[in-house]
Amino acid sequence: MTSDYILALSGNDIFSGGGLHADLATYTVNQQHGFLALTCMTAITENGFEVFPVDTALYQAQLQSLKKVPFSGIKLGLLPNVEVAEVSLAFVKEHAGIPIVLDPVLVCKETHDVEVSSLRAELLKFFPHVTIITPNLVEAELLSQQTIKTLDDMKAVAKLLHSYGVPNVVIKGGNRLSKTTAIDVFYDGETLKVFESPVLDKNNTGAGCTFASSIASNLVKGLIPLDAVREAKNFVYQAIQASNEYGVVQYANH
């Protein structure tokens, strides 16, 4: 039996909580072999937390190097600029037929409105070519150009994003609608499901990345999208619950 090869197109979190660190750790826990193409680096500078995109030609060379790997799934995280997104989209189109998860990270850094607008337009092009998108509330607002203040708003935006051509949508509400309950909304064109879990007062750095990569792992295992999301939410909850003050998790008993 061959291993499941699963690819992360992700950035480097200098604090090792999110991005590629969360993705590869999640794949390992799921007994899958993770590959990586690095999209960006991060660092604390005199300007604060900054994101430095990988040179586009270098990024393209990374993907070209992986061209012959028989991937069972792909998860896309932070695509720091339009150029990297365009190269990623071309790669995704070459891998039709396998589960592809798009975590449309738009707000992890300070950006100009023009840059966000350009990235939004580029990310929308991915929708017909991916299995599921996993925006948080702010990203869902930016992608839909709607305001989300209530659970009904989340449901409406999930349906709107689905209408843009993506088969499955899950909006991560986190604790923004309720300080005590983490709320996510899933929609696949027929089923509208609200997931709820208690908010944990612990370090949750990398939770969004872990959620998306866990969905990718579950899809590769053969779960349908709704079940993949359900299992991923439970996995993230358990990981946060088992983490220490640094966000380090003991996975031995998973």
**Terminal Cα separation, in Å?**
22 Å
- Going by CATH, what is the homologous superfamily? Ribokinase
| Main sheet: strand order | 2-1-5-6-7-8-9-10
Looking at the overall shape, the CATH architecture is 3-Layer(aba) Sandwich
Low-confidence parts? none
Regarding CATH, which class? Alpha Beta
What does the overall shape look like?
A: globular
Q: Report the average pLDDT across residues.
A: 89
How many β-strand runs? 10
How helical, in percent, are the residues? 25-40%
Q: Quick one: biggest sheet?
A: 8 strands, mixed
Give me the secondary-structure category: alpha/beta
Order of helices and strands: EHEEEHEHEHEHHEEEHH
- In terms of DSSP E residues, the strand content is 15-25%
Which value, in Å, is the CA radius of gyration?
A: 17 Å
CATH topology, by name, is: UDP-N-acetylmuramoyl-L-alanine:D-glutamate ligase
Count, helices: 8
Q: What do you see in this structure?
A:
The structure is a single chain. The chain has one domain (5-241): 3-Layer(aba) Sandwich (UDP-N-acetylmuramoyl-L-alanine:D-glutamate ligase), CATH 3.40.1190. It contains 8 helices and 10 strands. The chain has helices at residues 20-29, 56-65, 82-93, 113-124, 137-144, 151-163, 207-220, 225-241; strands at 5-10, 33-38, 40-45, 48-53, 73-76, 100-102, 132-133, 168-172, 181-187, 192-198. The two termini are 22 Å apart. Belongs to the ThiD family.
